[in-house]
């Protein structure tokens, strides 16, 4: 089985903490990874699994005080998975997430005694930042994390452009892919790392699978056909603002879909839709940020039995 990489969930924390010291040959590392990362930065932290078992993880975030910068705080690979390129895949997945949020730089640090980490970061395109000391010819910042806690500091540019090229295209005749919900998707343009657009179509009388998105929000505009969409938000998630700006108490809603209807799907919303018997249901959807990959969506319990 191949390794799959997905955004982390709060429930991953206990599993990661239970193995992290063993992966570091008995060194006590768990204190360096508090639960807050899994609760508050889940969309920029990633878990790798092989056959449902933890194979690796990466914990990172977008800087709140420097929004054009991202930071990789911690990563780990199961000893049996090392040397297979999984660390590179996790870093590249984080780079994608950072680019999608218009970050220009990624930073990281490591201990100067961790020569394997230094070599890995250099292979991943990181430059070593200047320091005030050297260890074996490597610039080091003395006392970076406190007395006696010297660190090698890394930085990597992502090459994000603020001026994407102009794009023009016609709607393709055939669908490019089938979405995780079962609809046919024609991929349209994207604007840099900010957002993308696609055409979704569900055949007459069909019922989609119920799904949710880890990090992506969408806005749909119905072009043709009739149907319904069901949406549900977990109680801990913030509700949408109503048309007059009031806070909605409604957490579950089913609306009719027809041409000229526009609906929003905030990230994390459980949703499902179905087409009427009079013809296919077609919509244009704006995705923010652009769709990051197949494991962005996950199935959830829905309002209606889905088509096989």
Structural key phrases:
7-stranded mixed beta sheet; Aminopeptidase; 6-stranded antiparallel beta sheet; Jelly Rolls; 308 residues; mainly beta; 20 strands; elongated
Describe the protein's architecture and organization.
It is a single chain. This protein is mainly β and 308 residues long. The chain has two domains: 3-157, Aminopeptidase (3-Layer(aba) Sandwich); 177-299, Jelly Rolls, CATH 2.60.120.10. Helix content is 13%, strand content 36%. The protein has four helices and 20 strands. The protein has helices spanning 12-23, 36-40, 86-100, 115-123, and strands at residues 3-7, 46-50, 53-62, 69-77, 105-110, 127-128, 133-135, 138-140, 152-157, 177-178, 184-191, 195-202, 211-213, 217-224, 227-232, 252-257, 262-265, 270-275, 281-288, 297-299. The protein has a seven-stranded mixed sheet with strand order 1-2-3-4-5-9-6. α3 links the parallel β4 (69-77) and β5 (105-110). The chain is elongated and about 75 Å long.
CATH architecture of the largest domain: 3-Layer(aba) Sandwich
Query: What is the CATH class name of the largest domain?
Result: Alpha Beta
CATH fold-level name of the largest domain: Aminopeptidase
End-to-end span in angstroms?
A: 24 Å
The proportion of strand residues reads 35-45%
Read across the widest sheet, the strand sequence of neighbours is: 1-2-3-4-5-9-6
**Count of the separate structural domains:** 2
Helical proportion, percent range: 10-25%
